[in-house]
Amino acid sequence: MANADVLCVIVGDPPSPGVMIEMGWASALGVPIVLLQEGDSAPALVAGIGEVTSTTRCRLPQELTEESLADIMTTVEKAAASPRSPRVTEPVAGYPKTSLPNGYEAAEQPIGHV
């Protein structure tokens, strides 16, 4: 993931735990994400991912044709050409600090301090 230009995932219903892990790594590293979705609504676990890293939502057609695959590839190529997002170090909209000591900064403290 550290060397990826883009992450392209199919968001299922329910979403795959493996896909959720990959999206977490990508967002932590600022890798742009292309979400291929069957419907219009995103699962709650991915609804705010665009606040953390560059995210493009793309409708997955019911039947893949050469034309629809070409459209998806164009979307993926555009996302891959976009710059990586900077690492998020402050809370973002909809994601308030936790009740843990130091909020999000707790993850950056040595283990003995968490």
Describe the model.
The protein is of the alpha/beta class and 114 residues long. It has two helices and three strands. The protein has a three-stranded parallel sheet, sandwiched between helices. Strand 1 (7-11), helix 1 and strand 2 form a beta-alpha-beta unit. It is globular, with a radius of gyration of 16 Å. It starts with 6 loop residues before the first strand and ends in a 33-residue tail after the last helix. Mean pLDDT is 76; it is low at 94-114.
Could you outline the blueprint of secondary structure elements for this entry?
Blueprint: E1 7-11, H1 17-29, E2 33-37, E3 55-59, H2 66-81
Parallel strand pairs: 1-2, 2-3
Radius of gyration: 16 Å
Characterize the largest beta sheet: strand count, sense, and whether it forms a barrel: 3 strands, parallel
- What percent strand? 5-15%
- Structural class of the helices, strands and pairings? alpha/beta
Mean pLDDT, nearest integer?
76
Q: Give helix % range.
A: 25-40%
Overall geometry comes to globular
Secondary structure: number of strands: 3
